[in-house]
Design goal:
SH3 type barrels; 9 strands; 2 domains; 5-stranded antiparallel sheet; 4-stranded antiparallel sheet; 4 helices; alpha+beta
């Protein structure tokens, strides 16, 4: 029984360890109950995560079924912008991309942005409007700080353009 448990723990650590690379990774552990957070500690028996809300999760390594690392090598700032159905989509895309480039080129963010912003286009058609998605590739963890800055600059950009692009001015950040 002890040998079987030890083998199970070691096998689980072999699954987890490459995805984490080291303590401090921003990961999701999937088991019966999902836990997401920054790795604080890894031991033979448990992995300790701290969630965005401050919750400390103690996850038994034997229960982990898969691991997703959101901060290994690089991260992505993902922003969805809802525009009204009667908006000029070409103008909306231009403003969205212009604001994103402006934010990314600011001195405080230039070192955090790895690649040019990508305007992916229409993501969804919702009850309130058309969702346009864009992404920005950043250094690990920088997406959480960059996304709120984008929202502030986007609102200014839409106002400068006479508010004709977004009626609702709803921005969803992930």
């Amino acid at each position: 029984m002890v040998v079987e448990m030890r083998d199970k723990v070691l096998a689980t650590i072999e699954v987890i360890r490459p995805a984490l690379q080291a303590d401090g990774g921003d990961i999701e552990l999937h088991s019966v109950d999902e836990a997401t957070g920054v790795v604080e500690k890894i031991s033979l028996r448990t992995t300790v995560l701290r969630g965005l809300d401050g919750t400390v999760w103690h996850v038994p390594n034997g229960e982990v079924q898969r691991v997703g690392n959101m901060s290994q090598l690089w991260s992505v700032a993902l922003v969805d912008v809802d525009v009204a159905y009667d908006s000029d989509l070409a103008a909306a895309r231009d403003v969205i991309l212009d604001r994103t480039v402006e934010v990314c080129s600011r001195e405080e963010w230039a070192d955090s942005v790895i690649d040019d912003p990508k305007l992916l286009g229409v993501e969804a058609l919702g009850a309130d409007g058309i969702t346009i998605r864009l992404t920005v590739k950043t250094i690990p963890g920088a997406q959480w700080s960059l996304q709120p800055q984008y929202v502030l600059f986007s609102r200014v950009g839409f106002l400068v353009n006479n508010g004709s692009i977004l009626d609702s001015q709803v921005l969803h950040i992930y």
